[in-house]
Design brief:
Elements lengths: L1 H5 L6 E5 L5 H7 L24 H8 L2 E5 L1 H14 L6 H11 L22 H14 L3 E9 L4 H11 L3 E8 L9 E9 L3 H13 L5 E3 L7
Parallel strand pairs: 1-2
Antiparallel strand pairs: 3-5, 3-6, 4-5
């Protein structure tokens, strides 16, 4: 309200989570509309129905309302933590998520500001958010390969990974669950790499050493 009152030419954009987004529905209907459920990590803005006093203010002062997914909000949280050194909760990072996702277009040279507010985010959720973003950025990768089941075989794989400059986050040694051929054992590696290109280089190093690693790709879970 203050910005629009003092500088009417400033474009004000509101941001809602896709999992709880009644504002655009209400603007279209011209009256407050409720959504049946709120499913979002941005619980601070998970309001299922805009208030009768709030909606007229949005109509008057807000030029556009965009919606962001939880993945886009997570990217905003991770960007604040990694690049700005700020701990910001989901609701406070929604605007950053919208900017990073390109939901709010702007021209070079334009001044753009977003509000970063609220640090009320659970530590476990913050760690999961950052880990998920690292996976999507290709900085965490999951490899599966079979090695000979004898002493020293796993150590050779670990040495190759180290020589390629990757860090082992988790390692799983599996026999029965993989139904590996007799005399071999399945190995799953969760690796931390610098970027997607480094991940591909680690994969090639293992292939050149005679292994046949399979890389698990990032996929979408069913709702």
């Amino acid at each position: 309200m203050a910005v629009k009152s003092l500088r009417p030419e400033v474009r004000v954009v509101g941001v809602q989570a896709e999992g709880c987004a009644p504002v655009n529905l209400s603007l279209k209907a011209g009256a407050p509309v409720s959504v049946p459920a709120a499913q979002t990590i941005a619980d601070g803005i998970a309001v299922k129905r805009p208030g009768r006093l709030t909606l007229p203010l949005i109509q008057r002062y807000v030029d556009q309302v965009v919606e962001v997914s939880d993945d886009e909000i997570a990217r905003g949280i991770a960007h604040c933590a990694q690049d700005l050194k700020l701990v910001v909760e989901g609701a406070g990072a929604a605007g950053m998520g919208a900017l990073l996702a390109g939901k709010v277009p702007f021209s070079p040279g334009q001044t753009v500001a977003t509000v970063l507010c609220g640090g009320n985010i659970d530590g476990n959720l913050l760690s999961r958010v950052i880990e998920q973003v690292l996976v999507r950025q290709g900085r965490y990768i999951l490899l599966k390969l079979a090695v000979v089941d004898r002493p020293g075989a796993l150590a050779r794989v670990v040495s190759l990974v180290a020589e390629a400059g990757a860090n082992i986050v988790d390692i799983f040694h599996r026999r029965a669950l993989w139904l590996a051929p007799l005399g071999k054992v399945g190995v799953e590696l969760v690796l931390e790499v610098r970027d997607a290109q480094h991940g591909e280089a680690v994969l090639r190093a293992l292939e050149q050493a005679g292994y046949h690693p399979e890389r698990e790709r990032v996929g979408d879970w069913p709702d």
